[in-house]
Amino acid sequence: FLGCVFGVHLTLLVQLAVGALPMQMCLLRWCCYVLALSGFHAAEFLTTARYKWTDVSYDSWLLNHSAAYGYAAAAAMVEFWLEAYFSPGLKSSKPLLALGLAVVLLGHGARVAAMVTCGEHFAHRIMIAKDPRHRLVTHGIYAHLRHPSYTGWFWWSVGTQVVLANPLCFVAYAAASWRFFADRVPFEEATLRAFYPAEYPAYVRRTRVLIPFLR
After folding, report:
1. pLDDT tens across 1-24, in order?
2. 46: phi > 0 → left, psi -120 to 50 → alpha, else beta; which?
């Protein structure tokens, strides 16, 4: 199903790009959003399948992440089409679309890089018991960023609303994503300090979390 959705919208996007269909900014934005959304979930599954195939399940797609996630996606779609119908001029800015796509690609790239760097040690759930095989990952993207998968997801989610030119959901997504990670990051950091009491404090001092107001 996800592949069909991706394929249909990629075909529409190509037709818009080559002029086979008349350029419509609303449709262009929608195609970019659906490709970003379906591409994100496909990458979650494929990366898990590549590096941690023993854990692969339907949950690996993250489509059933939470009820709140589903409601947020539905809200973004409803806002987009209501505004596209009643105020299409709101969706007309090409520079804003370019900015949104850049944020989406950078955010998603950071998340995928984090998953690939961790390899078999990456997990969608916080580990509360230390696996003796695990080591603190401090190379690759982790040499510069702490929690790059969270940073990537934060900016990807906010970027999707810039792509859609959704002012209401932009604010809501930024606030909800920040609140989620403001709770999750300190909990995970406390866990990592307990797992790696000698290494983690030094690692914290030389890296950053690129989510606003989180240190």
Report:
1. 778 888 998 999 999 888 877 678
2. alpha
The count of residues in the chain is 215
Instruction: Give the DSSP letter string of 85-104.
Output: HH-GGGG--HHHHHHHHHHH
Q: What is the pLDDT of residue 65?
A: 76
DSSP code of 180?
H
Half-sphere exposure of 193 (CA within 13 A, CB side): 10
109-119 tens-digit pLDDT: 999 999 999 88
Whole-number Å distance between alpha carbons of 113 and 107: 10
Contacts of 176 (CB under 8 A, 6+ apart): 68, 72
Distances (CA, A) of 91 to 33, 161, 185, 206: 13, 11, 34, 41
Which domains can be identified in the chain, with CATH numbers?
2-205 (1.20.120.1630)
Residues of the chain with pLDDT > 90: what percent? 69
